[in-house]
User: What shape does this take?
Amino acid sequence: MHFFIFCTLMMVVSTSYVGYAQGQQPPVTEIYKNHDGNKDGLLEAGEVTGSRYARQFPRWDVNGDQKVSPQEVIAFRKRFGIAADGTLLRAQKQKIGTPKFVTPKISELKRLRKGVPLSREEARNSAFLLGTEKHAVGGTQYVILTDHVDTAYLKSLKKLAAHHQGQLMSVPDLALLHEQEERFETLQKQLRAIAPKYAAIAPRLESFRENMLMGMWELFSTLDSDPELDVFPGFLMASNAKAFSKLIEQSLQHNPIPIEKLKPIAISQVLRDTETRSLQKAAILRQHFRKRNLETPIVAIYGKKATTAPRLKGKQVWNLEAPGGGKFIESFSAELSSEFNESNLIIMHGHGVPGMSCSVDIQGIPSNLQGKVLLTGSCFSASPKKSDLPEMRDAPGGYTVKKRDAFILRAIDQGAIVAFGHQRLSSGFPHLYPVLENWLEGRTVGEAYQRLINGLINLKEVKSGDFIIREKTKKPAQNSLLYVVIGDPALRPFGK
Assistant: This one.
């Protein structure tokens, strides 16, 4: 990967920077002179939108705070033998080798909050966790927000509302609610009067878009004076009325799975020798669950360039090879399929695009996920059918982005009772584990979800009015808030 990036940089150097000698890039000072619009000494994603630096920005922004200092750019350049003034560092040689594979304990991972610095190694390996805290909600009521008009969907929602002694509230179009000021304010006042504890959002598939999600965060964060979500949210979705009805019926009948009966399975992806962070996360989880006397079968899927990457040892470890060539795994052996059937918790770490997570195609999702909980840290695992953002042609990992069904939506269709994913570019384990952690402590789907989003709101210092994505950028500042949890927000996946 490093070699690929290096070659790409050299190609850009030789073809794009008119006025500079071959092998030279503009000085860092010049980049900031031309693009630091507010002159605060930091670059923001919006300041380089449309420029040749837009694609580089996520690579510069190692800690993910959406701001890049000159020191971060200089450090990035140095990795590829390029000095701050744009000239080549002739004495520097690229040393690309396989990093040492270590398995830290959960307790050793830093909890990231505002003001807590991350080392470059921690950020690069996603070896940290988002810090989350309890945020009390004021009410006790259960509310369902929907724009469904189909009687089959409404029948299921009315049954759910009756079960929770809650209210069903309808709007014409959840995707446009944030644009309709009068209707938004009316709904806001109604919710303040109701004081909901749980908010189940049931959008039509065509309404399920990035700004619909951001509109919900804007709505639920403005029920009081602080910037955090004031309800425990969850989404209710399936690709058809039959699957939707099954999701609701399962939710009504669900009893929390006792911890001692938990049967986790972890799937990780290792694309190349130097990229082992996903495998590390599977090892961390296996180590963590063993403290609870639980074994975690691991499926490690290796790319064609992962010839010398480490292999985990022990019982119930499957090392598979990804097909490559734009193809993904569409079936598993009978033995491994049996493991999936017996599991009730599936955790996935690795790259993804619409229709694929960790080199597993949606066609490879076990057909019977009845009552299972699935979490995937892959990008695009909850991708909408229609997006409010510009199309992306490629994704991290070197994958081509195509229009396909969302991974977690397919999982719900095949019986999963709860599913976690991301609409766009996911940060994976640092944000996934805190959700799982809260569920394992006996909290509801909605409370764990709320703690995640509130942790991100506080970290990014998002304020009222800043949730909606108003400029179409490939990686908006709000990207970190695009996590989706499908499931009844009042449901407790696991018992203590």
